[in-house]
Design goal:
Histidine-containing Protein, Chain: A; about 110 residues; 4 strands
Length: about 110
């Protein structure tokens, strides 16, 4: 339960940090927020790296082999976890990551008895 509380707090702080630092400023247009197509592949690689780094430091998700790929801001998750709560946490972590426009969660749940 403690880990869940810590995870919720971390996600909340992560989601709000962009707004606090001016990244979500109302004065910016969607076009200004886009990084441009010339660096799309580099941006997707960086986005995948940021998500994977967050999984590695999250105690609730670090033990699962979750694969991450990104294309134009859409992050695809695959792999196996042991509970639906872990699957949901993995998706929430991605959605709280700056630069993510959507998530295709293909993670499967394998209950271990």
């Amino acid at each position: 339960m403690r880990n869940l509380v810590i995870l919720v707090i971390a996600i909340t702080v992560s989601a709000c940090s962009g707004m606090m630092l001016g990244g979500g400023s109302a004065g910016r247009t969607p076009a200004e927020n886009d990084r441009g197509t010339g660096t799309a592949q580099a941006s997707d690689t960086a986005l995948s790296g940021r998500v994977q780094a967050q999984y590695a430091t999250d105690p609730a998700l670090a033990n699962f082999a979750i694969k991450v790929s990104a294309a134009a801001g859409l992050v695809t998750l695959s792999g196996k976890v042991s509970t639906y709560a872990a699957r949901g946490s993995a998706e929430k972590l991605v959605m709280a990551t700056d630069g993510v426009k959507g998530v295709d969660n293909q993670i499967t749940v394998n209950y271990q008895k």
